[in-house]
Amino acid sequence: MKAMLESVMDYLLVIGAIAGTIIMIVVATNTSAGIRPIMETSLKGGGDEIAASLAKMADRCWNDHGWGADMAVDDCYTVDIQVTSGALAKDTVERVLACKTTGRCSLAWQVQVVEGKQYVKIIYDGPNRAIAMKTFSWI
Fold it and tell me: 21 and 71, same structural domain?
């Protein structure tokens, strides 16, 4: 009886080790289960200069998600913005991103950023196949 119990325990131990290994491999290799860090960065400069940098980040976010093929929603970037000259307006960013011609942008600009500090989130919106940008003020 004791030998049979030890045999069953050994069998369960082997099954548990195999199951644990499989779970770890799946979590480590599955991109949707893996945790992708939000990229945080700061931009300081004129409105046009910052708009061009935001456009590059939006393109990178779009490319990282298979050019619209990924169905996930992902915060790609959080960007601290400090405008030192001019203004960073929604129209400027739309022009640089060519939102009206591509139709893949959604900009939720709360206020025009005029020589102040705010932050922008660049979000990949998989269900709508779009890049969203939202501005927030520091409190």
Answer: no
Phi-psi region of 86 (alpha: psi -120 to 50; beta: other; left: phi over 0): left
Q: How many CA atoms lie within 13 A of 110 on its CB side?
A: 9
For 106-131, the pLDDT digits (tens) are 666 655 555 566 788 888 888 888 88
Q: Same domain, yes or no, for 62 and 123?
A: yes
Residues 6+ apart with CB under 8 A from 15: none
Torsion region of 84: left, alpha or beta (phi above 0 gives left; psi -120 to 50 gives alpha): alpha
Q: For residues 7-35, give the mean pLDDT.
A: 68
Question: Across the chain, which distance is largest between two alpha carbons, in Å?
Answer: 84
Residue 54 CA to residue 107 CA, distance in Å, equals 12
d(CA 6, CA 70): 49
Task: Specify the residue for token string 């991103």.
Answer: 97
* pLDDT score for 109: 60
**Averaged confidence pLDDT in the chain:** 75
Domain that holds residue 31: 1-35
Structure tokens at 62: 């779009």
